[in-house]
Hints:
The protein is α/β, with parallel strands linked by helices. It has helices at 31-44, 49-58, 96-104, 125-133, 163-177, 195-199, 202-217, 226-232, 248-259, 263-272, 274-279, 290-306, 309-319, 324-330, 332-339, 348-354, 365-386, 393-401, 448-461; strands at 15-19, 24-28, 78-81, 87-90, 117-120, 145-148, 182-185, 188-191, 356-357, 416-420, 432-434, 439-443. The chain has a four-stranded mixed beta sheet, covered by helices on one side. The relative contact order is 0.09. Mean pLDDT is 82; it is low at 1-47, 51-77 and 464-468.
Amino acid sequence: MPDFCAAYVCCNRRCLETRTRGITFHLSKSYEEYEETTSQCSKEGDEDEDLALAIYESLQPVEVPSDGCVVVQDEEPHIVISDDGNLEEKESEPDVMSILKNISSQLDTGEHPQSNNVNVTRDSVLESAFRTFRRQRFSPAHRLNVVFVDTDGITEGAVDDGGPTREFLRLLVVAIKDSIYFYGQEDKKNLSLVSRALDAGEYRFVGQMLSVALIHGGIKPSFFSERLYCSVSSLPTPQISVEEVEDWELWEKLQKIQDAETLQDARDAVMEASSLLGLLGCPGFLNTMEQRHALVQEAARAYVEGRTQKALEQLVDGLKPLGVAEAIVKHPGTLKPLFVGGPKRLEMQDLLDLFSICFSDPGSNRRRLENRAMMFWKDWLIEVDEGTRPVTLEQILIFASGTDSIPPLGFSHRPNIEFLHCNDGNQKLFPEANTCQVILRLPLHPSYSIFVEYVESGILQSPTFGFI
């Protein structure tokens, strides 16, 4: 008898796919016929009870998904039955870390070219980025070398071993989100159309900046709307809403068409908007009231998606050099949280778990002072998390690392907390940080109130790289 090794069930008519050694049978019978066939096979096969039981259980009624296919998940690789009845192997989906590690492994870790030097002030981040990314020999595969210059033209005391780059890329993503290239709600941005920017190819540079921020700095550009992300990933976009139209005049006219209560009112509204509808390629005459909704949808989609198609193509081109565009198309669901939904709120436990504590020997006087400082630190974090202090958890992480969120792949160095002991009678009052190594150094104070006062003052007044 055939050596049955798997059985699959499809909707409506039950389909039994049996595989023998070198032979595949495909039977299409009713559920009752399968029970009879199974019984006969078990008798002819010397009453192999275990095998008969397995086949019988596989034929029991199952809840069938809407796509009409049951996936066998017990073994690797996953096997599914396609719509045409053929067996297909389904590869397991890699997680975000695996995808990003694969992209990062292709970066050039050698000496960065001079064209990758970034000279920047915090009030001109986007302008500085464009100067850098436009250079003929700029290489997105090499690391950046960022130098912050203060308002007096003096460079800040920071050698870029990762910290200044993370700070620059964090500020850059914020600047891009709030730039003329995007519009919409804070964390649901669509592409806007700026003709001169399109002619200059600036959307391509914007895409390149976002990919560099993600791969080199671990900065997630999580401000895309669902529509924009679907467009980038070549997926069908969701239903359009008139609220997504940023042009006030067009929005008002479309809303008037949509709110019309009679066919004549709707026709008058269409006539009033005819010039704008014509520019969008959506002229029309209404024969029924129902047609007004289709016309409004068509016009809104033409405005939000159609007119920005060239800008979208440039943006996607900019995501290609580091392989981000290809990864999004291949794994749209897995990478979606990196681009959609806004930044994940930093939790107090995230900071507690992030840092390793560099304690002195147990029982020593130094250890006693460090224990007290850690007690103050943890109590203070509770108050910060409650929102009762003038600083946020994100500001604390920025002070220590240059970024306001933990990168998907973590930091290249294990973050540490160290302590500022008195040396040669010189007791430091404020916290210090090495953002490249991600080291936070806490001062040692005799009381909680003094500790909080100096730590908060240091964080709020520091330009991030004031202490290295």
